[in-house]
Design brief:
It comes from Gallintestinimicrobium propionicum. This is GNAT family N-acetyltransferase. The chain is of the alpha+beta class. The chain has a single domain, classed as Gcn5-related N-acetyltransferase (GNAT) (Aminopeptidase, 3-Layer(aba) Sandwich). It is built from three helices and six strands; from the N terminus they run H-E-E-E-H-E-H-E-E. The longest helix has 18 residues.
């Protein structure tokens, strides 16, 4: 065991530095292809009472690749095309900004079939993650 180092949980500042150092390394290998390294593309849907009923949170990361982080629609509003419209709007805005690909991940108990209907294809899976379920990794050309 090497006693020259101390191993511990990071502070918030250390977490930020780790992220910054990794981004700096990545950019030395492949330059940023977009104006800003991280650009948000998000949309929400509201009902007639101005209550949040759904949304998509996404970000274009470094090389014009749209990363879909969250897609959610309240249960009593599902099946009305809300998620499809939100996703399409985010994809169109990202494409107009130069994105050429979108990627996301989902679980078998979430919505892989929905994403396939929106043109996404599975390129990887983790089985039994969580136990008894499958974790899907999906992509789409924009």
């Amino acid at each position: 065991m090497n006693n020259r180092f101390r191993f511990d949980a990071p502070s918030v500042a250390d977490e930020e530095e780790l992220d910054d150092q990794l981004v700096a390394y990545n950019l030395r290998k492949v330059p940023c292809r977009q104006g800003e390294p991280f650009v948000k593309f998000c949309r929400c849907a509201y009902n007639e009472k101005n209550e949040l009923v759904g949304g998509v949170l996404a970000c274009s990361i470094l090389w014009n690749i749209l990363s879909i982080e969250s897609v959610w629609v309240a249960e009593n509003y599902r099946g009305q095309g809300i998620a499809a419209r939100l996703l399409k709007e985010v994809e169109e805005e990202a494409k107009a900004a130069g994105c050429y690909m979108a990627q996301l991940d989902t679980f078998d108990f979430q919505a892989p079939g929905f994403y396939e209907k929106q043109g996404y294809e599975i390129f990887g899976t983790l089985t039994n993650a969580p136990k008894g379920h499958t974790h899907y990794y999906m992509k789409k050309t924009l």
